[in-house]
Amino acid sequence: MKNDIQKILLSEEDIRKRITGLGLEIDRHYEGKEILIVTLLDGAIVFTADLIRNLSIPLRLDCMRVSSYGDSTDPETAPRILSSLKTDVSGKHVLLVDDILDTGNTMKRVHDEVLAKNPASVHSCVFLDKPDRRENDFRSDWTGFSIPDEFVVGYGLDYAGRFRQLPYVGTLKPSVYENS
Ligand code: IMP
Ligand code: MG
Fold first, then answer.
1. Which tens digit of pLDDT belongs to each residue from 106-115?
2. How far is the CA of 102 from the centre of ligand 2 (A)?
3. Residue 153 and residue 5: Cα distance in Å, rounded?
4. What angle separates helix 45-52 from helix 12-29, to the nearest 10 degrees?
């Protein structure tokens, strides 16, 4: 697995420090309120697990599954909501959490879906952002790191379902794409 990595973009230490900072910012923003974290499966699992352990405000968790990518590194079609929320979001402060903001189509779709259910507020926090790839006007309220337009894996992000368990973020060697 480590042999498949071309270059490490973000180390474990970089990630840990940044998430500590994000936790403080989010705590401050929502002071005195309870939030509902909506995690986008599967990619945001690792980020969410670390983020919530850096939050002191009361929170609950729910998950949503959205499809936008197949096994390729290019977007398939429009994102579809494959599994929706268990929680009634009306009147709640919702924080959407995803691994990466790429075209922005996934987050826009999810944001619109949640907003239609009368929450008290909807904000978003993404681990990574590739601003050069954006296809709409979606902006995240909190971003871990902005990165260049390169396909990355690790810390929850996958290529063809693999590499999610890497504790850092890196790019893959061309041979990985050639052999799959
Ligand atoms: P968007 O709808 O184009 O913003 O895509 C967001 C989703 O695409 C993310 O939740 C990821 O699952 C996937 N994605 C986008 N870029 C990457 C990448 O560099 N590595 C792994 N997955 C990615
Ligand atoms: Mg994903």
1. 999 999 999 9
2. 10
3. 9
4. 60
